[in-house]
Amino acid sequence: MLFQDKDTKDEIWQAVKHELHRGALDAKHPFHWVNLGTVSNDFPSVRTVVLRKLTEELHFFVYTDYRSEKCSDLKQNSHATLHLYHPKKQVQIRVKVQTILHFQDEMSNKSWQTIPSHRRSEYTGDQAPGTKISSPDDGWKEGDSSVHFFTVLEFVPQEIEVLQLSRNGHLRIVFNEENEWEGNWLTP
């Protein structure tokens, strides 16, 4: 368990922040893999992304290809939801976010320098992610290595809702940026 009903709201908030930071730092932590939900035409669209960084202000950072569907979705509607689940601690976290796309700007250029050379081909492909192809090998045709579509998605949290599952009764609490992250209990 991440928290119990006897914990204060501030103790819960500190535990949530600590666990989120662990997810950004440890590739084996369940919070390293984040479900990203966007609005795509008439349907919600959900996919798993890797949490690359989390700032003290709780800005989440993810890398992607600018030509991806998620970027198209976020250019149309910058609101998104992040979903994280820790199976051992039986806790779910949902984060409502505002998105900033960093493509060919100072942040993306600086982050690009940290990408190992053997991973850069993931962002220089000849075709956009999701393009129909004849065979799996066609999906790995590398384009011009000097041209890349590397993009950093910055997710600025507006609300963080936490559901702690428990045999003794589930607990649910929400923290809002507009209330300076003061928690409010919710009916589970």
Give your account of this protein's structure.
The structure is a single chain. The chain starts with 8 loop residues before the first helix and ends with a strand. The protein is 17% helix and 37% strand. It is an alpha+beta fold and 188 residues long. Strands 1, 2, 3, 4, 5, 6, 7, 8 and 9 form a nine-stranded antiparallel beta sheet that branches.
What brief labels describe this structure?
single chain; 37% strand; 188 residues; 3 helices; nine-stranded antiparallel beta sheet
Summarize it.
This protein is of the alpha+beta class and 188 residues long. Helices cover 17% and strands 37% of the residues.
Termini Cα gap:
16 Å
The count of helical stretches stands at 3
Principal-axis shape:
elongated
Share of residues in helices: 10-25%
How are the SSEs placed, and which strands pair?
Blueprint: H1 9-25, E1 33-40, E2 43-50, E3 53-54, E4 60-65, H2 69-76, E5 79-86, E6 91-103, H3 106-112, E7 150-164, E8 171-176, E9 183-186
Antiparallel strand pairs: 1-2, 1-5, 3-4, 4-7, 5-6, 6-7, 7-8, 8-9
